[in-house]
Automatic annotation (TrEMBL), chain A:
<dbReference type="InterPro" id="IPR025857">
    <property type="entry name" value="MacB_PCD"/>
</dbReference>
<dbReference type="Pfam" id="PF02687">
    <property type="entry name" value="FtsX"/>
</dbReference>
<keyword id="KW-0812">Transmembrane</keyword>
<feature type="transmembrane region" description="Helical">
    <location>
        <begin position="314"/>
        <end position="335"/>
    </location>
</feature>
<dbReference type="Pfam" id="PF12704">
    <property type="entry name" value="MacB_PCD"/>
</dbReference>
<protein>
    <submittedName>
        <fullName>ABC transporter permease</fullName>
    </submittedName>
</protein>
<dbReference type="GO" id="GO:0005886">
    <property type="term" value="C:plasma membrane"/>
</dbReference>
<feature type="domain" description="MacB-like periplasmic core">
    <location>
        <begin position="18"/>
        <end position="280"/>
    </location>
</feature>
<feature type="transmembrane region" description="Helical">
    <location>
        <begin position="435"/>
        <end position="459"/>
    </location>
</feature>
From TrEMBL, chain B:
<dbReference type="GO" id="GO:0005524">
    <property type="term" value="F:ATP binding"/>
</dbReference>
<dbReference type="GO" id="GO:0098796">
    <property type="term" value="C:membrane protein complex"/>
</dbReference>
<feature type="domain" description="ABC transporter">
    <location>
        <begin position="2"/>
        <end position="241"/>
    </location>
</feature>
<dbReference type="GO" id="GO:0005886">
    <property type="term" value="C:plasma membrane"/>
</dbReference>
<keyword id="KW-0067">ATP-binding</keyword>
<keyword id="KW-0547">Nucleotide-binding</keyword>
<dbReference type="InterPro" id="IPR003439">
    <property type="entry name" value="ABC_transporter-like_ATP-bd"/>
</dbReference>
<feature type="region of interest" description="Disordered">
    <location>
        <begin position="224"/>
        <end position="249"/>
    </location>
</feature>
<dbReference type="GO" id="GO:0016887">
    <property type="term" value="F:ATP hydrolysis activity"/>
</dbReference>
Amino acid sequence: MFFVTYLRRELRRRMRQSVFIMLGLALGVGLVVTVMAVSSGMQQAQGNVLQGLYGIGTDLTVTKSPPPFKADDNNGFRITMTPSGAEVCDNGKCSSGAQTIDNLNGLSYGPLPYSTIAEVAKLGKVQAVGGGLVLTDQQMVVPASVATGGALPTSTSFYVDGVDFTHSTLGPYTDGKVTSGRSFAAGDASANVAVVDSNYASAHSLKLGATVTVAKTPFTVIGQVTQPQGSQPPDVYIPLARAQALATSQGKKLTGEVNSIYVTAVSAADIPTVQAEIGRLLPSATVTSPSSLANEVTGSLANTARLTSSLGRWLAVLVLLTAFAVASLLTIAAVTRRVREFGTLKALGWRSRRVIAQVMGESAVIGIVGGLLGVGVGFAGSAVIKAVAPKLSATVVTATGQHLTSATPSGSTSYDPTITRTVPITMSAPVTLDAILLAVVLAVIGALLAGSIGSWRIAQLRPADALARVA
Amino acid sequence: MYELTQVTRNYQKGRRTVSAVRDLSLTVDDGEWLAVQGRTGHGKSTLLHLLGGLDRPSSGSIDFDGRDLSGLKETQLTRVRCESFGYVFQTFNLVPTLSAAENVEAALVPMGIRGPERRRRVGAALESVGLADRMRHVPTELSGGQQQRVAIARAIVKEPKVLLADEPTGNLDEETRDDIVNLLEKLWLERGLTMILITHDSSVAKRAQRVGVMKNGNLSILRDSRRAERRRPEQRKAVAPEGEPEPAS
Ligand SMILES: Nc1ncnc2c1ncn2[C@@H]1O[C@H](COP(=O)(O)OP(=O)(O)OP(=O)(O)O)[C@@H](O)[C@H]1O
Ligand SMILES: [Mg+2]
């Protein structure tokens, strides 16, 4: 076919230029694919973190902010250490001298009555509801005294989850797989038994039958669970009733309370409706959806996500626009150089449309090849990112509600310990079909844009003027 | 064939208006060979472009076979160009990436002639210019004379009524020039073409039936041997190659 022959010959004649345009488009498009891959990898990673924190299948969590904390003598947990002695005050109850502190706190969230679960269950479009206690066990050995300017003792802490296993299959516990021992049974509801996370177990050498101390109470380890990779599970799971009996929130027992309610909507589309209904039912509660949780995640994961969404996107757009511009300029230059050729064709009786089709055909081929190369560049980029990306981590910081003070002759220093949960993330950058299609479409659009600018010049061309030019 | 009435073609050069062709009236007969001479810049090419439907006059009318070219729409004009006019340029203007055969083929593309018929006509056209053995060569592999032969084959392959040639021998040496002029004359005789040929070269011009000179955009006829030639066909036979048939008169 004449069209194809002519097209092939012209592309071959301007091989170097064609390849240059193709590579430019490929680079721009490849960057777009890479950025898209990275950001979908980011989304996946964030999804993993959030699911790990709040449980697979949970669409919404209902929590309440703790009552405002007033740091005075009767409120909060205060440890004062001076050279002359140590004093520990727990919401106004003080004791002095060396001692071991082991508290199970539910201070991150305010308490909600257990009956709230049933109320939420009655709302429309709600599929399932469950509740539990999200707690932190804080342990510290307080010495008899601390020398002036001496180091404060450090506290250790781990996460404890009060699991309502007799009623609900929602919440972080249900994501785990029991890898050794057994899960909770109905008879365990008020027993001092614990299931521990396998990572926590190996870090602390906790075998089956070992004892883990929670709020100065020994619990027997009956099983180990493994949570999905990338999740940030609680360390120790205990029956909800035991947790309610042992935990406190700002000095008050949590008997008959939960502090996290997990809700599943009938369908993903119902999430906003359910969220609004719960908001009306419990005006003082916070209803959180996975999308609003994304803001709570900090650390290198969040930084990288921000970087890809800002810098990466701009870089890709910039390179793409540059490629478009260069392609357009080169096409204009090529058309200008071929003005006499096109004038001759017009003199032979070629319609402008046919000449334009020829130029557009050349551009389309350049665009398609550039787009396919761009997909290749995208795959390469995503592979490179997987290979060289530093290990990322997501960090979620939670307050412990404690207040530590060290009094010295020159004054006192104090700090509020927080618990930082860091989840390691394996960075992935999957190239999606959408990205591939977008790449090819973008490259073809770029090339056709260049072609149309060239064609516009051809349409302007009067054959006599074209032929008058001496090349 | 042609009836030009008071044709003017102005170019705007800054504030100044240049009349490349001015008030030109001319009649061209069916099957005649008109040569146009003239100094550079006096409007020869402009006239040829007007005759070939590549350009439109600023005023006046160009009647071609009963149609006024100056009044046609662009698509109609393209159609006329495609069917009726063959061009030959001083600089050959072959598409550099296409072979000789493909360059000739390019003229048949807009006519919608395809397949075996297209190949047959391309072959015949190249044969009639003596280049049957150079079909696959690209322009850079051909001499100037051969390139011009390809251009001539491209002009005649669609069997036009009019062959328009703008200094077809301007870039060729004397011997090649004579070959090309002989070839043009042969085709003119064989095919009953109307041929309008622009040349600086008097030895080329004198072969034509009628010779005019462009001066300041106007054409004055120097010599007209149309009637004389019709009376003396044996003379025409002398310049035609051996065994060529008589032109229809
Ligand atoms: N596109 C144009 N724009 C402005 N002026 C033009 C244009 N084309 C031709 N002219 C002017 O019109 C006049 C006639 O030009 P034309 O090309 O017809 O001359 P010519 O007789 O063919 O000359 P040559 O022998 O050098 O080819 C010249 O003065 C030229 O400068
Ligand atoms: Mg000229």
